[in-house]
Amino acid sequence: MALSHVFETPVSGFNFENSTRNILLENVLDEGKTKAPKPLKTGTTIAGVVYKNGVVLGADTRATSSEVVADKTCAKIHYIAPNIYCCGAGTAADTEKTTDLLSSNLTIFSMNSGRNPRVVMAANILQDILFRYRGMIGANLILGGVDCTGNHLYRVGPFGSMDKVPYLAMGSGDLAAMGILEDRFKVNMEVEEAKTLVCDAIHAGIMTDLGSGNNIDLCIITRRGVDYIRPYQESEYKQRRQEKYKYKPGTTPVLTENIVPLELELVHEMVQTMETA
Amino acid sequence: MDCILFLQNTRGLRSQLKDSVPVAGLCPQAGPYGIQDTLRMGFSSVKNELLPSHPLELSEKNFQLNQDKMNFSTLRNIQGLHAPLKLQMEYRAAKQIQRLPFLPSSNLALDTLKGTDESIGFEDILNDTAQCEVTGEPHIMTEYKLGLL
Fold this sequence. Notes:
The complex is a heterodimer.
Chain A: E1 2-3, H1 19-31, E2 46-51, E3 54-60, E4 63-65, E5 68-71, E6 77-81, E7 84-90, H2 92-113, H3 119-132, E8 139-147, E9 150-156, E10 162-164, E11 167-170, H4 174-184, H5 191-208, E12 216-222, E13 226-233
Antiparallel strand pairs in A: 2-3, 2-11, 3-12, 4-5, 6-7, 7-8, 8-9, 9-10, 12-13
Chain B: H1 2-6, H2 38-41, H3 46-50, H4 57-61, H5 63-79, H6 82-95, H7 108-114, H8 122-125, E1 135-136, H9 138-146
């Protein structure tokens, strides 16, 4: 559609044309007691631990939309690079898109330079993206990975803050998870001990926080490879169907039946022999 | 130049404190006679034009400009005046390789110089100009570009 008031091609990227309209709409709607739809938040418990040979990341699988569970099997551990994975808390769309962008940029970099990306590089790129948007992108991320310089775990906040730590929990259930981690974390743990620790931390978050629940996913990253266990532990409150809910044929009575034959005319016939040698 | 393309040059800001980029604010778009062009731009409202409606609107509008300015300034401090001068000359030459205003230009040379062909950002995903729902009238856009409008 060619409009006569458009002088230049519109710039790509974020478009703020509707923000005035949205502010006006919200003011009008609040008086009528209706609210604008809220974005899907993950209301999560995510945790990460550095152990002797690598990094263990864990997350629950519940995604909430205000008071309703929107997704019972949400995947919160995102792939960034073959040796780097990222857990995301906050707005679900923001964490997914930001981690996708990061992953694409790192793939281009590793194709260009022929090297595996380092975890500190991923953390810096994330920090740049998030700081540029001053916290409008609601993504709290735990970045963990193994590269040539060792095993690393970084926390990146939505406003662009970065923190390098040996163990970490984030999300709405982070207080409970942090309690478990603070109590039982030791430097240079073995893999089974680390897995149990992260699983227990996420479990504590699930039990104490309404926004976390359902299954626990674990991701173990070592120099040799990645073990993404989904689910590591299923929820003990999983519902089972009580009965069969299919309708028997004949449940709905047929009142009338009207059959109209379609009259087709053979217009063109073409035979093509197939080579069956 | 490679390292600058990926990461933002936030430490270069210190040298920029004295001269800041003049922000082209949201002043009323003056038509050819200097006053508000109601026919083409619609009604004007003082409130709309004085303040940005979104906190990120101004910073996003000038983001690339500010980054470039900081990068060139750092480069000048490290390598001397010739470095940013040469680069800016190349940018200007590449910017002129365009098709007619209403046709999509690939900007291949400019992208390669800036390094945006090796990175993906929100500009590549959101509001893709190839899939824009509105286009301008070709004659009006060409006249605007040539300054005849």
